Structures are given as structure tokens and as C-alpha cells.
Amino acid sequence: MKSYHLDRFKGITIAMYSCYDEQGNVSPEAARRLARHYADVGVSGLYVGGSSGEGMLQSASERKLTLEAAVQEVGRELTVIAHVGAPSTRESIELAKHAEEVGAHAVSAVPAIYYRLSPQSVERHWQAIIDSTSLPFIIYHIPQTTGFQLSKSLLVKMAAQDKVIGVKISAESTFELQQFKAAGGDDFLVLNGPDEQYLAGRSIGADGGIGGTYGVMPELFMQIERCFAEGKLEEARKWQFTVNEIITELLSFPSLYGACKAILKLRGLDIGEPRMPLLPVAETDMERVRALNEKILHYIAQV
Ligand SMILES: CC(=O)N[C@H](C=O)[C@@H](O)[C@H](O)[C@H](O)CO
Ligand SMILES: CC(=O)C(=O)O
């Protein structure tokens, strides 16, 4: 058994969006407002500085500012996971140590990006991050962006350590998710990545989920989770279908995060635009964003 308390990592964990001011600088105030909003909705946790958080587009000091703001605002109410993946192991370690200092509850990392890495290299990278703090560690497996295929054997080797409490799997194969769950054992968390498959992931073994579209409709994912937990599978499926209709529309914009941020802005939560090369919503697309926001709010009102 792991010596860490794992329940706090289950449920709906929001992959938090980047928060900038009008000049495009990281805004700790906006990060606090956004984190507060999610705590008030009642989600389980926040995943800070991942894909949705644009960690890879920010300097280490900007990432630290954002994490500090989130932990200070909601760290006593929510589980805060710091994504510390970076191009170099050295920078990831710096971020992991900082995450521990400021009180994050876990660290997580993708394999180092850009270079094509051998499994040995990724293992050493993760191990160096794990060894740098006493926090639990969650592997982030997202082969479609990193190009790294995590093998079951490396997963098993990593999961054997007390500190490695789980994997966030963003690969789209629910079979792979199930295989990781079986390989990791009962006290190893598997967290669903693809939001479109939240229910499928949960049904086949995921303990919860971390997602990038949760941030514009946390209530709907909490509803799927509630229905699933109560065994109401028909109803859970209905909500998953609703969510998937929304995600399909979100993905039709030039950038997913641009669309999500524009939606939050319409609701009075201005967290800035995505950072280039990710694109904001074009003025000509704003009508479509407004309609989508209305649609999401309409469904949320039915929960
Ligand atoms: C590839 C990717 O970024 N996956 C995200 C996290 O796992 C998801 O949350 C997606 O953003 C979401 O499922 C929309 O496709
Ligand atoms: C999408 C997601 O889970 C992330 O931001 O890393």
C-alpha cells in the first residue's frame, strides 16, 4: 500500500487555464479568481501548468507565480497538482522543489519535450524529479504531443515506488488505460485524460479525471461522475453525449484554449488570451462562441 492518501486525487480535477493580464503577462490575481471560481463550484482539484495551463509556453518564474497564486487561494480546499514538465530535467527539478515549498499536494510531469527520448532517458528524467522532493508523483502520459510511448514495463517499474501514486493518461485507448490500471495495481491511480471518454475511462478502471475542457463546464463532469457513482449509467451516458457535443464545437475553433478562455470571459472571468502560437478567438467567430456559451449554460442549469 502507498503511504500517501490517494482519495484526494480522485474525482474531477480541472486542468487550469493560463491566466494573463491585458499585456499577456502572467496574472496571479486572475489565477486566484479562476481558482476561487472552481473551488466554489466544488471540484476535487486543480492541475496547474499542464497543457491547458500553457506551462510549456511559460518561463519557470511565471509558472511559479501561477502555482503560488492557486495554492494560496484554494490549497486548503482543493488538491493542487503542479505540472513541472519542462524541456530540461534541471528546470523540472527546480519547479518540483518550488511546488513542494509552496505547498502543492503532488507533482506531475510529461517526459522532457522536444528530443526523441529513449525509455531509459525518460525514466532517469522522471526519477530525478521524483527524488528531488517528498511529494507524491503522477506520471503524465500524453503521447500525441510528446511522442513518447509509455510501455507497461516502465509503468510497472515506476509504480513500484511509494511516491509514484498514479498516471494521467491522455492517450485515447481505453484499453491502454485498463492495462495501466491492471499493471499498476489497486493502490495506483489511473486518471482519465480524454474528456470525450470520461465515462468510458471510469467504466474501465479510471479513478477520476483531469481535463482541459472541464474548466468551462465542471458542473457537467461532476454530473457524469455523480450518475456513474450512483450506478445510473443511462443518465451518465446522456450527460457524456451532451459534453461531447460541446467538446466537438470547442475543437472547431483555431485553438481549444482560445475558445475556452473566450467563454469564461463572457461569464465575467477575464483570464486573458492564450499565448502565441496558440490563437485567440477571431472577432468573426465571437457570435459562435456566444451561442456555445449559451448552450453550455443551458445544460448546466439542468444539472
Ligand atoms: C490531448 C489533450 O490535450 N488532452 C487533454 C488532456 O488529457 C484533454 O483534456 C483534451 O483537451 C480534451 O479531451 C479535448 O479533446
Ligand atoms: C488537458 C490537461 O489535462 C492538461 O492541461 O494537462
From TrEMBL:
<protein>
    <submittedName>
        <fullName>N-acetylneuraminate lyase</fullName>
    </submittedName>
</protein>
<dbReference type="GO" id="GO:0016829">
    <property type="term" value="F:lyase activity"/>
</dbReference>
<dbReference type="InterPro" id="IPR002220">
    <property type="entry name" value="DapA-like"/>
</dbReference>
<dbReference type="InterPro" id="IPR013785">
    <property type="entry name" value="Aldolase_TIM"/>
</dbReference>
<dbReference type="Pfam" id="PF00701">
    <property type="entry name" value="DHDPS"/>
</dbReference>
<comment type="similarity">
    <text>Belongs to the DapA family.</text>
</comment>
<keyword id="KW-0456">Lyase</keyword>
